Amino acid sequence: MNEWEIAIKMCALFFPIGKTGAYSIPVLEQIDPKKDCIQALIIVPTRELALQTSQICIELAKHLDVRVMVTTGGTNLRDDIMRIYQKVQVIIATPGRILDLMEKGVAVMDQCKILVLDEADKLLSQDFKGMLDTVIKNLPQERQILLFSATFPLTVEQFMRKHLRDPYEINLMEELTLKGVTQYYAFVQERQKVHCLNTLFSKLQINQSIIFCNSTQRVELLAKKITELGYCCYYIHAKMAQAHRNRVFHDFRAGLCRNLVCSDLFTRGIDVQAVNVVINFDFPKMAETYLHRIGRSGRFGHLGIAINLITYDDRFALHRIEQELGTEIKPIPKVIDPKLYVAKLLDDDDTPEANAK
Ligand SMILES: *[C@@H]1O[C@H](CO)[C@@H](O)[C@H](O)[C@H]1NC(C)=O
Ligand SMILES: *[C@@H]1O[C@H](CO)[C@@H](O)[C@H](O)[C@H]1NC(C)=O
């Protein structure tokens, strides 16, 4: 394991800082506060992400005497130019704006030894038409480039071959596993879904559950219906502010409520140990989404069940995802054996550590 790998794995454990912390901490460590020049550049695809990243980075840099600046489109260019002329050592930017500043000769990059591309798959997509190649031309020969990507499309691979020498790859996806999760499907009509969910709630021994819908609107609607049925239910979706989402997730994790309805916003598997039932109220179209929703990271490998509500329109996706992931999704039986998902409460003497003694 090299130092990046350690940093990334550590930060994956601290949910709210997560990936941003994984690269910000080592980047900040390598900044020489005595040098009055831009030493690291972090590029992200959206303004929101740039602001969010800079907040974390500024917080982490608070006691380091390192100056961090964020610059994105949609803000006053002249203000940014003024700020860059003061001592700035780390810049967080969206691609268009930083190129603009480079071309004007304002952002001087000849001492910038680290480039981080966050959400590299988006940055290297058609949306940004080769802008990153231009950014790299402005960097010194000796530099380190770090790519963070949820997926690994051809564009990222090509970019790697072109600009990275003998790169070190860390794949956290491998750790997401379906082991220990028994997967079922129930064939239903769209209008039967809520009824079916209600039946599941009454039959299953749910410790905590997460229920996935495919849109913000459906998340809110379903959460409302579940509440009306008399079950405690939280929801989170992508349109809620990050701070609000974090609070709901925190409360859910603390066990204040049994059920959580959400859209696809966990970037990697659910790491709430108390969740023993995951329900795909809307079945996803992509295998990757399915794996993110249902998969568990290896370190928690414990028991659970996943139940997929499948409509007529989902039938092909079901088989495709099953094949792509090399897994089996079985028809739901009348009775589900509790041994598959209900943890038996262990005595202290019964824990694996105690047994190993
Ligand atoms: C979400 O699921 C509903 C019901 O299956 C479907 O009508 C709708 O088109 C889906 N929306 C998206 C964005 O896939
Ligand atoms: C059940 O969930 C609660 C929180 O809701 C948690 O404290 C407890 O450990 C969970 N039990 C099991 C067996 O996972």
How would you explain this protein's 3D organization?
- The protein is elongated, with a radius of gyration of 23 Å.
- By secondary structure, the chain is an alpha/beta fold.
- The strands form 3 sheets. Strands 9-10-8-11-13-7-14 form a 7-stranded parallel beta sheet, sandwiched between helices. It has a 5-stranded parallel beta sheet with strand order 2-3-1-4-5, sandwiched between helices. Strands 6-12 form a two-stranded antiparallel ribbon.
- Helix 1 packs antiparallel against helix 2, helix 2 crosses helix 3 and helix 5 runs parallel beside helix 7.
- The chain has 2 domains: 169 residues, P-loop containing nucleotide triphosphate hydrolases (Rossmann fold, 3-Layer(aba) Sandwich), CATH 3.40.50.300; 174 residues, P-loop containing nucleotide triphosphate hydrolases (Rossmann fold), CATH 3.40.50.
- The structure holds 2-acetamido-2-deoxy-beta-D-glucopyranose (2 copies).
- The site of one 2-acetamido-2-deoxy-beta-D-glucopyranose (NAG) has 5 residues, from loops.
- One 2-acetamido-2-deoxy-beta-D-glucopyranose binds next to loops.
- It comes from Tenebrio molitor (Yellow mealworm beetle).
Provide the descriptors you would attach to this structure in a database record:
Rossmann fold, 5-stranded parallel sheet, elongated, disordered C terminus, binds 2-acetamido-2-deoxy-beta-D-glucopyranose, DEAD/DEAH_box_helicase_dom, ATP binding, Helicase_ATP-bd, cytoplasm, ATP-binding
**Treating each run of at least 4 consecutive H or I residues as one helix, how many helices?**
14
Unreliable residue stretches: 346-357
Which CATH C-level class of the largest domain is it? Answer: Alpha Beta
Largest sheet: 7 strands, parallel
Average residue pLDDT: 87
Could you state the CATH homologous superfamily of the largest domain?
P-loop containing nucleotide triphosphate hydrolases
Q: What is the overall shape?
A: elongated
User: Strand order, biggest sheet?
Assistant: 9-10-8-11-13-7-14
Helix content bin: 25-40%
